[in-house]
Amino acid sequence: MVRYTELRNKPVYDESGKFIGNVVDFVIFRDTGDIFGIVVENISKEIVEKLGLKKKGIIIPYKAVKSIKDIVIIKEGDFHIVE
After folding, report:
1. 8-state DSSP, 71
2. Is the pLDDT of residue 46 over 90?
3. Which residues neighbour 13 within 8 Å (Cβ) at sequence distance 6 or greater?
């Protein structure tokens, strides 16, 4: 089991080793309590340019998370812009 406090501010990388950003929060389904995704801010310049971001962060679906240890590793895929 991993606690929220252990994940906060952890760096997030994709499978190819590209830095994405840092974990700042989670999005949870109200009805079930299941995690929908992780909110990532401090987004890398490359991702900001690639996605044309003007918002403060992205949400990475939890199903894209491959590994959580000292860093979070995710599959490459869709990001959702945080309003």
Report:
1. S
2. no
3. 19, 20, 71, 72, 73, 74
At 1, list the tokens: 């089991």
pLDDT at 45: 85
Domains, the chain, ranges and CATH?
4-81 (2.30.30.240)
Query: Distance (Å, rounded) from C-alpha 64 to C-alpha 83?
Result: 20
Exposed/middle/buried for residue 31 (C-beta within 10 Å: 0-12, 13-18, 19+): exposed
For residues 25 and 52, the model is more confident at: 25
Tell whether the model's pLDDT for residue 58 goes beyond 60: yes
Relative to beta strand 72-74, strand 11-14 is: parallel
Total-model pTM? 0.82
Closest by Cα among 38, 43, 42 to 7: 38
Neighbours of 68 (CB within 10 A): 16
